[in-house]
Amino acid sequence: MLVKQDVAYDRPLEPSFDSNGPKHVAIIMDGNGRWAQARGRPRLYGHHAGARRVREMVENCPRLGIRYLTIFAFSTENWKRTQTEVTGLMDLFRRYITHEMRALNDNNVKVLFVGDRVRLDPKLVALMAELEALTTNNNGVHLTIALNYGGRDEVARATRKLAEDVASNRLDPQDVDETTLARYLDTNILPDPDLVIRTSGEARISNFLLWQSAYSEYEFIDTLWPDFSVDELERLCRSFFFRKRRFGGAIA
Ligand code: FPP
Q1: Would you say 154 and 186 are in contact if contact means Cβ atoms under 8 Å apart?
Q2: In this predicted model, what pLDDT tens digit does every residue of 107-135 receive, in sequence order?
Q3: Residues 45, 99, 41, CA angle at the centre, nearest 5°?
């Protein structure tokens, strides 16, 4: 079971360190396959170990002052993997939702899925909708799971919806600006991420939150995702304090 958290986020948070830490952390959980292969095990073994890390991170978000945690679980490009791995991952997502649903809700976690659901199995989509509906009024940690998600795909889908609204006179083209477009994105209820972490030594974004991370700070670390610890997350949050974010402005 997840640790029971009584943090009500409408009140000021009481993190173990000051409140200048990242409020929204997004993670590219990379390295599961290599972690498993190093142990002579199939890649899915690494994904299962990775799922256990997710639970641990969610549990510790309130203590670290992280209100929003967004994780990249499956990209629009991950369908290129073997059938065995794709099926195994989809099965893992189903199990994760089924097994964690109650604990996530009991812990006041609000869950949102982002990504295109059209290509996903209807049974999985139904479980995703059930978890979202169950936790919709929770006001603790906001856990966003990117599943069949690609940043370019998200912008393309948003643009299509926006174009439909223009075509049906619900939206005036003169009113289209950054704020308007952002409302059509899957992430429209979320603030932009403050900190994006990628594990496993790769220094690329891989189509993750392209629009939203325009001014995010990045941390690329060597640790493989199944070895990523809460201590490491805390260290990255602490080093975030010392970064001077200027959002395009001049050095003070
Ligand atoms: C990338 O590692 C990881 C993925 C494509 C899947 C991420 C999924 C999980 C961590 C499973 C748990 C998630 C939830 C929401 C239950 P990789 O396989 O590309 O690793 P490699 O680069 O070492 O091959």
Answers
A1: yes
A2: 999 999 999 999 999 999 999 999 999 99
A3: 5
Q: Which residues are catalytic?
A: 30, 78
With residues binned 3-state (H G I as helix, E B as strand, rest as coil), the percentages for the chain, rounded to 5, are: 45, 15, 45
Residues 6+ apart with CB under 8 A from 167: none
Nearest CA owner, ligand 1 atom 7: 73
Q: Which residue has the higher pLDDT, 144 or 4?
A: 144
Contacts of 91 (CB under 8 A, 6+ apart): none
Per-residue confidence band for 194, with pLDDT thresholds at 50, 70 and 90: very high
The rounded distance, in Å, linking the Cα atoms of 62 and 213 is: 22
Q: Ligand 1 centroid vs 249 CA: distance in angstroms? A: 36
pLDDT value for 133: 98
- What is the residue with the minimal CA distance to atom 14 of ligand 1? 51
- Answer yes or no: are the C-beta atoms of 58 and 143 closer than 8 Å: yes
Residue of minimum CA distance from atom 10 in ligand 1: 50
113 forms bridges with which residues in the sheet?
145
Pocket test for ligand 1, best of 27, 39, 44, 47 (most atoms within 8 A of CB): 47
First to last CA, the chain: 46
Q: Which residues pair with 24 in a beta bridge?
A: 68
Give the predicted TM-score (pTM) of the model.
Answer: 0.92
* CA 115 – CA 117 distance, rounded (Å): 6
Quick one: residue 53, left, alpha or beta (phi over 0 = left, psi -120 to 50 = alpha)?
alpha
pLDDT exceeds cutoff 90 at 16: no
* 56-70: average pLDDT: 95
Residue 107 phi/psi, 5-degree rounding, is -95, 15
- pLDDT for the residue 9: 35
